[in-house]
């Protein structure tokens, strides 16, 4: 049996079987409080803004007078608290238990999903956006507010990480979402990842997931750290971009980089051509004609 840092055999088996895991009580409350204070700082910054920029993605219903932020982009580059948490054992120890000691960052984002209007994210697979040479690719979600059925939780289809990569194209253009029914899924089989603030969720890069509009009176903020085994290399057309091997290796979170990709038998579709508006998943999915989730008027 392999030595593990934090996860039990049962937790590792659950992840392998279903493609997700929720770990309660993983992040100390003072770190969650510090992240909430950082979020307030970003919300202040949105006042007066007329359009999204490279730090903040704004809701369609945002106005400069009534700011509505739907995503803080790359928060590890603009917040010391969120950078330090990313490289801490709170996050990396369980990931090492699942996909090994050598980890490379893909990206970070904080999806706000505010009470009353926080935007939905249509069903998709992260691996459809960034196919790699193997699927030791996952996302850790840090639950900033208690997340339950009512406030737009992250939802997954257990076991879907073992299936195909579905078509995320419309009219020949990548739209970052799939047609759930056409792909044979029944909404009744989706599982909401619930947990109190300070929990983390982990979802496999191939798992089918999405989340509804938050019409409740409680915020649902979820900070994502997306990462992969260092020997999972991006495949042509993947949204993983880097200008040089030095820049690529600067994304290492722990362990050692390699120049030898591990190739496994994983399903791949190339997420190309990209739509013109492609600065965030919300923009990419905005071309959809049929939606699974409601949009706010
Ligand atoms: O925030 C959510 O509920 C889903 C996030 C997600 O899947 C994404 O941003 O790719």
Question: Number of DSSP strands?
Answer: 14
Low-confidence stretches: none
CATH topology: Jelly Rolls
Number of helices: 7
Annotated CATH architecture = Sandwich
N-to-C CA distance: 54 Å
Distinct small-molecule ligands in the complex: 2-oxoglutaric acid
Can you tell me about this structure?
Strand 8 and strand 9 (173-174) form a beta hairpin. The protein has a single domain (9-285), classed as Jelly Rolls (Sandwich), CATH 2.60.120. It contains 7 helices and 14 strands. Strands 1, 2, 3, 4, 6, 11, 13 and 14 form an 8-stranded antiparallel β-sheet that branches. A 4-stranded antiparallel β-sheet has the order 5-12-7-10. Strands 8-9 form a two-stranded antiparallel ribbon. The chain has 297 residues and is α+β, with helices and mostly antiparallel strands. It has helices spanning 9-18, 29-46, 80-86, 89-99, 126-129, 245-249, 281-285; strands spanning 20-23, 56-58, 69-73, 103-111, 121-124, 137-143, 155-156, 169-170, 173-174, 191-192, 200-204, 209-211, 222-229, 252-254. The chain binds 2-oxoglutaric acid. 2-oxoglutaric acid binds at residues 111, 121, 154, 209, 211, 222, 281.
């Amino acid at each position: 049996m392999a030595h593990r840092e934090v996860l039990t055999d049962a937790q590792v088996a659950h992840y392998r079987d279903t493609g997700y895991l929720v770990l309660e009580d993983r992040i100390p409350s003072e770190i969650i409080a510090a992240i909430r204070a950082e979020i307030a700082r970003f919300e202040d910054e949105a006042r007066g803004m007329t359009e999204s920029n490279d730090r903040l993605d704004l809701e369609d219903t945002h106005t400069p007078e009534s700011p509505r932020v739907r995503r803080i982009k790359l928060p590890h580059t603009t917040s010391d608290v969120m950078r330090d948490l990313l490289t801490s054992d709170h996050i990396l120890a369980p990931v090492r238990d699942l996909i090994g000691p050598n980890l490379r960052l893909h990206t970070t984002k904080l999806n706000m999903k505010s009470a009353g209007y926080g935007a939905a994210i249509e069903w998709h697979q992260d691996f459809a956006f960034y196919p790699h040479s193997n699927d030791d690719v996952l996302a850790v979600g840090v639950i900033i507010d208690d997340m339950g059925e009512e406030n737009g939780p992250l939802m997954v289809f257990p076991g879907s990480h073992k299936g195909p990569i579905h078509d995320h194209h419309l009219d020949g253009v990548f739209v970052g979402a799939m047609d759930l029914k056409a792909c044979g899924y029944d909404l009744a089989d989706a599982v909401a990842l619930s947990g109190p603030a300070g929990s983390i969720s982990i979802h496999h890069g191939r798992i089918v997931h999405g989340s509804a509009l938050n019409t409740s009176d409680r915020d649902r903020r979820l900070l994502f750290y997306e990462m992969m085994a260092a020997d999972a290399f991006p495949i042509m057309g993947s949204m993983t971009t880097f200008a040089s091997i030095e820049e690529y290796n600067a994304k290492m979170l722990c362990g050692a980089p390699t120049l030898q990709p591990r190739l496994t038998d994983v399903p791949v579709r190339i997420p190309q051509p990209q739509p013109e508006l492609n600065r965030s998943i919300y923009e990419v999915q905005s071309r959809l004609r049929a939606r699974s989730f409601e949009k706010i008027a």
